[in-house]
Design goal:
By secondary structure, the protein is α/β, with parallel strands linked by helices. It has nine helices and nine strands. The protein has a six-stranded mixed sheet, with helices on both faces. Bound molecules: guanosine-5'-triphosphate and magnesium ion. The site of guanosine-5'-triphosphate has 19 residues, from helix 3.
């Protein structure tokens, strides 16, 4: 050993193992990821939840093949599964919501959904503020909201604009074109452009947000995802046989849509986006942007309440 090497060996403190320590701790605890699906009735929200859980993420558990037809969802309902991959544990929670839009008066039909999202923030804040707070707080905050758009091929409906605007104030919103098997390739491409234009026109700020950090990798990643959003998806409750293999799909008179085939729809892009490329970022932005905004507003209101009370008494 040379002298220089000897000195290096002696002065080696070993703090570079911190990454392994963090990793070990995180892996043991696992990750919690919460998604909500929102949109007008009958656009395939419940079907997509089932499709996501069935698409190789999880095997043979839950209601993945059903003989019963899907029923209209009547209440906000969470479905949860733990996925383990190479020793990493992910608890995926998908919240299904009742669709709206079939009432004569659809005003404020989105209120229960906004309330649900805010309630999760409020529950988290309450746990954070208790004197004996847990070292690890169970996280039910919604990290991503999939917003279902009717595949009309024309434009967004006024109700979509209103609801997306409201939602984008409290959660990361990612729009998807529902039942995209009903659009031709050209119609789909034009519809995407139209939707993007309308979002800009109505100043609806959706995920991913521009960061001030100029991390080249992140900028690149967000650019590619912006080119795809809104994801044109297809969901299915049933398996079909293609080339002897059983896959999630929809059989029509003129052929079969394979949900997991990237030439047929963008379901796999959406799944990769959620579970591979943007999982951590969605969790982080929820905490740093949406929850932080909620938290500071609540704490400020609390402080004002305390300051006001003596004055009120006079
Ligand atoms: N063509 C086509 N039909 C679909 C697709 N996804 C779902 N469907 C069908 O659309 C109907 C409604 O699907 P649901 O999943 O119940 O819709 P929902 O959005 O949950 O409806 P609500 O619970 O009322 O809000 C069902 O008959 C599905 O089989 C799709 O991607 N393409
Ligand atoms: Mg439903």
């Amino acid at each position: 050993m040379s002298v220089a090497e000897e000195i290096r060996a002696e002065s080696y403190v070993g703090f570079d193992s911190i990454t392994q320590q963090i990793e070990h701790k995180l892996l043991k605890r696992g990750f919690q990821f919460n998604v909500i699906v929102v949109g007008q009735t009958g656009l395939g929200k419940s079907t997509l939840v089932n499709t996501i859980f069935a698409s190789h993420l999880i095997d043979s558990k839950g209601r993945f093949t059903s003989d019963e037809p899907v029923r209209q969802t009547t209440e906000i309902q969470a479905v949860s599964h733990v996925i383990v991959e190479n020793g990493v544990k992910l608890r995926l929670n998908i919240v299904d919501t009742p669709g709206y839009g079939d009432q004569v008066n659809n005003e404020n039909c989105w209120d229960p959904i906004i309330k649900y999202i805010k309630d999760q923030h409020s529950a988290y804040l309450r746990k954070e503020l208790t004197a004996m707070r847990d070292r690890y707080i169970q996280d039910t905050r919604i990290h991503c909201c999939l917003y279902f758009i009717n595949p009309t091929g024309h434009a967004l409906r006024p109700i979509d604009v209103i609801v997306m605007k409201k939602l984008s104030e409290v959660v990361n919103v990612v729009p998807v074109i529902a039942k995209s098997d009903s659009l031709t390739i050209e119609e789909k491409d034009n519809f995407k452009i139209k939707i993007r234009e309308e979002l800009v026109y109505n100043s609806i700020r959706l995920y991913p947000f521009d960061t001030d950090e100029d991390d080249e990798e992140e900028v690149q990643l967000n650019e590619t995802i912006r080119d795809i959003i809104p994801f044109a998806i297809v969901g299915s409750e049933n398996n079909v046989i293609i080339d002897g293999k059983s896959v999630r799909g929809r059989r029509n008179r003129w052929g079969v849509v394979n949900v997991e085939d990237q030439n047929h729809c963008e379901f796999m892009h959406l799944r990769n986006f959620l579970t591979r490329t943007h999982l951590q970022d969605l969790i982080e932005t929820t905490a740093q942007i949406h929850y932080e905004a909620f938290r500071s507003k609540q704490l400020l209101a609390l402080k004002e309440g305390v300051n006001q009370r003596p004055a009120e008494r006079q």
